[in-house]
Known about the structure:
476 residues
Amino acid sequence: MKTKLLPFAACVLLAGCRVGPDYQPPAVKVPEQWGEPLSGRVTGQVKRVSAWWKSFNDAELDALIERAAATNLNLRIAEARVRQSRAQRGLAQADLWPSIDGSGSYSRQRQSENQPILGDISIPSSVPFENNVYQSGFDAAWELDLFGGKHRAIEAADADLVAVEYERHEVLVTLLSEVARHYVVIRGAQRQLAVLQSQIAAQTETLTITENRVKIGAATELDAQRAAALLATIQSQVPPLETTVQAAIHRLGVLLDLHPDALRDELSVVRPLPPVPPEVPVGLPSDLILHRPDVRKAERRLAADTARIGQVKSELFPKFFLTGAVGQSSAGAGDFFSSSSRTWSIGPTVQWRIFDFGRVRSQIRAQIAVQDQTMLSYEQVILNSLEEVENALVAYAKEQEHRRLLAQAVSAHQKAVELANEQYNEGLGNYLDLLDTQRALYVAQGALAQSERTVAVNLIMLYKALGGGWDNSVAQ
């Protein structure tokens, strides 16, 4: 029995023993290298990037990023949650200190003349049964945190606050990538529209020449219809791209807390697609644990839930209070402030949920289960982050290879069209061959323009998967 009492006695003597497990960051195994061989301008170098979007060297994109970071509603909501979490942390901190309540009252009261205690006593008629009561005073109570329940609550609140701050950072990372992605979509679609317009102009000229050849008998009506069909096919690709541009403009407007159409004039001016940087440092897989805000947030949630085990476990032990009161009480206003009207009390109080241990132990087991879930969620977040980066690395590298091959195809198709035109004009080739080579060129040109846009979008998604950059200085 004495042995069992030793921990309890030690806690009391130390006046600060904290029951429950002390949190230790979990050791999570991650690969030493990326599974996908780094290629396509990607390096394993760890390089601090103050603002990854500036690697595109586009002043308009930089301006949109800064405006979004200052006005976006989702980010402002996240900032309000940070302020709320700070206030909640203050509440936990306040529980460490005594609570003091002040009160004051006045009442007119009458006592019963037929009280049992007075029934057998002769009471002079001068004794009043009606009188005034003046009272004021202060009550104080202070719970001594001998077993650390309140300190565990503060520990949990601290971890929750940091988790909410990482949540805000996560919103920022998503916002920056969304602004950049929609901007690239606009410029890429405008590039595709420019390619289509040049194709439409070229095919319109071809149709005119063919119709003139039909008039002089050098071509057939079938040739003219085929040329017209190809022109209409090219023209049909314009409306979907215009829809893509307008939808992206509308989305950017909302991201900047503006009316959806507010940026139409600003972004409808055609500008080139921003080029991707010559080098993209991605670091090592272990860097994700330091740079991804969702990973850091999950780790802090685990720390908070671990602290809450001790907070609940402290309910198994007695609670010690120091209570006191001081005040004035008088039947008349004249002597209310005299020393004879003074009242006070002071003393310790002990509370112990002796007969409620079954409920407390169930709460402890429930909180341990919550911690287990949070730990598994933390491991899942790390796995998901690794998957996102691996997929982004593959997508960025392969799309660059795709773009390179499409550029070769466009060059070859252009030469084929030139040869087909020469042969057709010299009467050595048929019109169907010319149309086929033109159609193949137009398809390759459109695919190349699409691939250029996709390369930039994939790079943005890679930055986002890596945590949005290593030092997002905007709106910090």
